[in-house]
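in:
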């Protein structure tokens, strides 16, 4: 089968399309013929070395496709079922193994939609329900509001009754964040974020959802009101340097650094959050905005565009 592998860390050019042996499903595992794999910013961290990966590595943390074989003791799915799943860095490939208990049968949801919404939808949903439970009347700040996760965060925060301020880097991205439901937009390439926030809501916001990291962290803290919550969940501009705790004490702030998988440890949490995300898609509370679908061989181009801030919404790989 074909797969994208990385045998040394670096820029997008280190990704290579190669022939790999087909995985064989063991007890409790299924083999999925992937049709779509979602591209996520985290894939770039494993490729660049920001997050450590065992090399050579196949990238990719989510996919959708058709079950092509099942291992012993699998009762949850059958060959031919359409499924989606969170993968362990092996989804940029024609076939991947997955735990049967962790694949989700798609009840009519198209394969491309499922791959497009799974990881970023789960991230946004767990952030607004468990990292900081957004409530009616809250003010929230969402960075990179035209991005895959940011756009979904805007939709969910608005649905939960919050007033949403979103940051973006361009006018074109502002339109996308506004269409997703943001009440106010800040062009963080031109404006000073905390100053712009205080013009909109002088007390500051209740919570910041910050996936940009290094470039926005300080401004996010300054944008919070007393007892506000800083949810730092990513590093698209680079990793946040160590934080001095005294920075939090002036406003009694809460600081969280959540990881999606930490909210999905039990099968019950995993099943519940996915069911909820798919329900929100069906009810059109959240929708998927696919920026582009790339061929598997074009994964390096997709990473280049994602890291070059050229994309909006979701990027997918089509796997023939
Ligand atoms: P996005 O689609 O949001 O793409 C990243 C965006 O970040 C860009 O489009 C850009 O938007 C913005 N950005 C700001 N500064 C930079 C920079 N210097 N270089 C590149 N981009 C920059 O990606 P994802 O939705 O996949 O991920 C968003 C964040 O969420 C990432 O940090 C990711 O790691 C994190 N994440 C964390 C998870 C967790 O478990 N903690 C799970 C999933 C995602 P603009 O041009 O508007 O600035």
């Amino acid at each position: 089968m074909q797969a994208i592998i990385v045998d040394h860390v670096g820029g997008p050019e280190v990704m290579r399309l190669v022939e790999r042996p087909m995985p064989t499903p063991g007890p409790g595992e299924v083999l999925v013929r992937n049709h779509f794999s979602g591209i996520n910013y985290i894939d770039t961290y494993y490729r660049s070395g920001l997050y450590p990966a065992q090399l050579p590595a196949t990238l990719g943390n989510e996919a959708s496709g058709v079950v092509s074989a099942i291992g012993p003791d699998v009762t949850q799915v059958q060959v031919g079922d359409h499924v989606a799943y969170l993968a362990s860095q092996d989804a940029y490939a024609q076939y991947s193994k997955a735990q049967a208990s962790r694949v989700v049968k798609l009840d009519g949801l198209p394969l491309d939609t499922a791959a497009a919404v799974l990881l970023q939808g789960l991230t946004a949903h767990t952030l607004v329900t468990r990292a900081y439970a957004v409530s009616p009347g809250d003010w929230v700040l969402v960075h990179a509001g035209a991005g895959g996760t940011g756009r979904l965060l805007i939709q969910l925060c608005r649905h939960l009754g919050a007033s949403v301020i979103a940051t973006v880097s361009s006018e074109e991205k502002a339109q996308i964040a506004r269409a997703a439901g943001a009440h106010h937009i800040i062009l963080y390439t031109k404006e000073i974020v905390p100053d712009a926030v205080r013009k909109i809501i002088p007390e500051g916001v209740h919570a910041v959802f910050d996936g940009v990291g290094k470039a926005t962290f300080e401004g996010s803290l300054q944008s919070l009101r007393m007892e506000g919550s800083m949810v730092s969940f990513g590093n698209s501009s680079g990793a946040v340097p160590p934080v001095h705790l005294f920075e939090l004490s002036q406003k009694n702030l809460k600081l969280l650094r959540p990881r999606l998988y930490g909210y999905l440890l039990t099968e019950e949490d995993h099943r519940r959050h996915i069911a909820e995300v798919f329900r929100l898609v069906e009810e059109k509370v959240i929708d998927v905005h696919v920026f582009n679908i790339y061929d598997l061989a074009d994964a390096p181009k997709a990473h280049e565009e994602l890291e070059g801030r050229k994309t909006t919404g979701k990027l997918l790989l089509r796997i023939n």
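note: The chain has two domains: 2-108+289-318, 121-261.
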